[in-house]
């Protein structure tokens, strides 16, 4: 008696069909991961940069002078600038301009002049207005993350 080994055509087609359905479902859910990751990374980098500017103000970090200087962040829709001093000057060569990423936009609410300045020595937000918020938006999906900043410079996500 001869034993047949292997799979029939029907069994093979069923397995391939199941595989295609699973691959289709997984590829649809993976398509949304890039915008979410892009938004999360951009938000985390922005938070880190804000906290670094505050820390520089608190510790007295200075490029060249011997006095303690304020540091801040100036927000624009497609970029933000890290600066030294009690006000933002676009001509200052010490400025560091950062683009938060592709398809990322920034907006502010209750942050005077789109400028967040940390006082020298204390690190408190100079000219604080209640409800200071920076919103990071992924423009393709309109997903948003908001960073609320309190008078002491603490950030709530």
Describe the 3D structure:
This protein is of the alpha+beta class. It has a single domain, classed as minor pseudopilin epsh domain (minor pseudopilin epsh fold, 3-Layer(bab) Sandwich). It contains two helices and eight strands, in the order ααββββββββ. The chain has helices at residues 9-30, 33-59, and strands at residues 71-75, 80-84, 96-98, 104-109, 115-118, 132-138, 143-149, 155-156. The strands form two sheets. Strands 3-2-1-5 form a four-stranded antiparallel beta sheet, covered by helices on one side. A four-stranded antiparallel beta sheet has the order 4-6-7-8, covered by helices on one side. A hairpin with a 5-residue loop joins strand 7 (143-149) and strand 8 (155-156). The mean pLDDT is 88.
